[in-house]
Amino acid sequence: MDLKFPSSRKYISISVPSKSQAMSPHIKSVDDVVVLGMNLSKFSKPTQFFICVSGVFMFYLIYGYLQELIFSVEGFKPFGWYLTLVQFGFYSIFGLIELQLIQDKRRRIPGKTYMIIAFLTVGTMGLSNTSLGYLNYPTQVIFKCCKLIPVMIGGVFIQGKRYNIVDVSAALCMSLGLIWFTLADSTVAPNFNLTGVILISLALCADAVIGNVQEKAMKLHNGSNSEMVLYSYSIGFVYILFGLTCTSGLSPAVTFCSKHPVQTYGYAFLFSLTGYFGISFVLALIKIFGALLAVTVTTGRKAMTIVLSFLFFAKPFTLQYVWSGLLVVLGIFLNVYSKNMDKIKLPSLLGLWKKSVEERKSRTLSQTV
């Protein structure tokens, strides 16, 4: 819009920024989502969902197997925080390499936001890895399956979201299944420890917050997946290194791993590589479909991880695991149904009752005739 004045040849030019420009000065396209060099924006929504889900399942199933394999090494269980340090170091290197492959290398998300995300990431992965020193792997995974509960709470307080009765019912089923599974584990597992329950519960709380913070930051500033991984994990690496140095936990871990380099650093490299690929697809899910659907997908993956854990690693088993696991699966189904209520039409109890009454009436009439 140009404003001209008759007494002067000068004029003032006023331009109104577009929606994308107002959101962030670095955005070229708010729809671009690149994962491992592949631009998902060129595909349809169902195809994007299929690619992301396939990537999450494939890489995280291998990730879960390698994680349990590392902790099966005799004497490694006390060094969960050191494994997290090594993992963060590899993630930072992978993120730096991927960032060099894209044209726009500028940081879009503010540094303060990354410091918060890094702290939450350290809490999520560090506490989760450390809990394996006290819990069976399936118990740790079943706790992670119930991440929907703190994610819903975080969504209410951080993003002001509201959830319907089906979501609440899903959270309730997951809570009951989680309690039942934990009670079963405490009776049959010889190494059950309440410390592990506390650690994994704190990890879930941090995970609930981080999903919502990542979703909000990536949508507001249109940050790339590689940028998110590089800055959050490199800052987290500094946090963990400082903590291990202050608590004198670095030297014993380095000494132990130097004696078993293949079983520790070798497995840790593959563990970190598959985890990095997996987190890239999870971040794409968060950016495209939101944190809640991403949690639903990762929860389904974790349910399959539990089955594989019992198949590949010897551990005590009870049928109570099955019933409590099915209750958690019911909660997952209710959560998926609540997000697709317009597409999935389930018959209501009132509708079934009316249908049965009409069938009885028709039978009575046919018998009378």
Which SSEs are present, and which pair or pack?
Elements: E1 2-4, E2 11-13, H1 19-23, E3 34-35, E4 38-39, H2 45-71, H3 80-100, H4 111-131, H5 137-145, H6 148-158, H7 165-188, H8 194-221, H9 225-246, H10 250-259, H11 261-289, H12 291-312, H13 319-339, H14 349-368
Antiparallel strand pairs: 1-2, 3-4
Q: What can you tell me about this protein's structure?
A:
It is a single chain. With 369 residues, this protein is an all-alpha fold. It has one domain. It is 73% helix and 3% strand. The strands form 2 sheets. It has a two-stranded antiparallel sheet. Strands 3-4 form a two-stranded antiparallel sheet. A hairpin with a 2-residue loop joins strand 3 (34-35) and strand 4 (38-39). The chain is globular and about 80 Å long. It starts with a strand and ends with a helix. Residues 10-30 have low confidence and may be disordered. This is Adenosine 3'-phospho 5'-phosphosulfate transporter 2.
In summary, what is this structure?
The chain has 369 residues and is mostly helical.
Count of individual beta strands: 4
| Strand arrangement, major sheet | 1-2
Which term fits the overall shape?
globular
Strand content: under 5%
Sheet/helix structural class: mainly alpha
Spans where pLDDT lies below 50 across 5 or more residues: 10-30
- Portion of residues in helices? over 70%
Q: Work out the helix count.
A: 14
Q: Taking Cα atoms only, what radius of gyration do you get, to the nearest Å? A: 25 Å
Can you write the helix and strand succession as a string?
A: EEHEEHHHHHHHHHHHHH
- Number of domain units: 1
Largest sheet: 2 strands, antiparallel
What do the pLDDT scores average to? 76
Measured between the Cα atoms of the first and last residue, the distance is: 82 Å
